[in-house]
Amino acid sequence: xxxxxxxxxxxxxxxxxxxxxxxxxxxxxxxxxxxxxxxxxxxxxxxxxxxxxxxxxxxxxxxxxxxxxxxxxxxxxxxxxxxxxxxxxxxxxxxxxxxxxxxxxxxxxxxxxxxxxxxxxxxxxxxxxxxxxxxxxxxxxxxxxxxxxxxxxxxxxxxxxxxxxxxxxxxxxxxxxxxxxxxxxxxxxxxxxxxxxxxxxxxxxxxxxxxxxxxxxxxxxxxxxxxxxxxxxxxxxxxxxxxxxxxxxxxxxxxxxxxxxxxxxxxxxxxxxxxxxxxxxx
Length: 282
Known about the structure:
Elements: E1 2-4, H1 11-17, E2 27-29, H2 30-33, H3 37-45, E3 51-53, H4 58-72, E4 78-87, E5 90-100, E6 105-112, H5 114-118, H6 123-138, E7 145-152, H7 157-162, E8 171-177, H8 180-200, E9 222-226, E10 235-237, H9 240-247, E11 254-258, H10 263-268, H11 276-281
């Protein structure tokens, strides 16, 4: 991966955001399994061609710093412990931030935006926690509960005072119990994902299966009932037929199609220029 320095930042900053390759050959980390198969394979194939600018990686520095500070504290739990399990022809790996053996509690530290909290977008944290719990279970360690402690990088005290739906503290805790059924479900997810990664790895770039709707952070197409002279929609519908059926009742003048978008692809995917889905869409 090539790290550019368009803002002529100090060399120390550039070195701080320059990371080593995340996965070793034949290994998939817990966080890698949460990404789209297409994105993961393209990142591995084109790693040396990927370009990121140091200034765009500022939050990586903060996340790394938070983990380093927490790891340095002296307490009875163990930290940054590495686990791996053989799945199919590969290994699934995970590095646990903190584990309290007495409480059988797994903790993970996150830096996040308030948007994630407001929209309760915890699906990836839930799966990540379960993957860690599964890996630890295979090593003979039981996990009863997962706790994610998030530091909110864009928290505003003024918004917290005026909006009860806004996170009221710059620290947010998301936690859940680990059940036997959840561990069985995550084992199925891990096995299917690894096998799909192995299968897709033999396919050419242009033939790769696109990432899922969820993995692309995609929003659906909408059809808006509009009125002449008005910029905002009278009402939005999930299909053109529904919009047409309600046009007269809403006293609308015309229907406007508002295409959905894959928010991750253009702004947060480092391999979009090699992605067959992104190239087709753009």
